[in-house]
Amino acid sequence: MTDQKLPGYRFPFSVIGHAVWLYHRYALSYRDVEELLFQRGIEVSRESIRTWCINFSEEFALGLRHREPRRGSRWHLDEMYMVVGGVTHWLWRAVDEHGAVLDVLLQRHRDTSAAASFFQRLLSQYDVPETVCTDKLASYGAAIRELPVLDEVDHQQVISTARCNNLIEQSHRPTRRQERSQLGFQQVKRAQGFLELHARITNLHGSARSTLPANDRRDTLIIALRTWMAVVQQVA
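^ that's the sequence the OP posted. Answer follows.
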């Protein structure tokens, strides 16, 4: 990691990057991160950590996305409700057949327009998939019919508990844990920034949670940490 300091910041960027990683990697509060840094001899306020997470989440998420491997051609889509600032929103999520998060988008509505917006966002980043697997929400089918680029896509609709859609149901769980640890989200823009980076860091460490042998898990973790350090150095 780099020890250079950015203008206006008292701490080296290595400290900033580590604090942001801790906050997104684990279900920690700003106070938890403050105490972990203090244990390492770094005295920083919770407010500073919050500011770092807000200011650098977008750049870190973009850096991680550019380093992700080519994703699969089967998309699983689902939406989960979230209360942001006392108002119900919907978090739209897409994963590939390996469980890697393709993208997330927080929207007020759960209609055809919202589904189409999410598809367009995905298509701006990834190739057209061969298969799209969703639940029975009619908005998905209507949005696919509205987008000519998806004419040839095999759209499979299943009940939310079906095995083929279990990947995305499992993918919601880390988000729920983080939501509980933060006692909810208060602002849409900040929630979106947090959730994007949280999804990318979940991808980065995803295979470390599988049933790999211990040596393979450690090797995977080393690669993940090196990737994160490379992103931090690039942003700095």
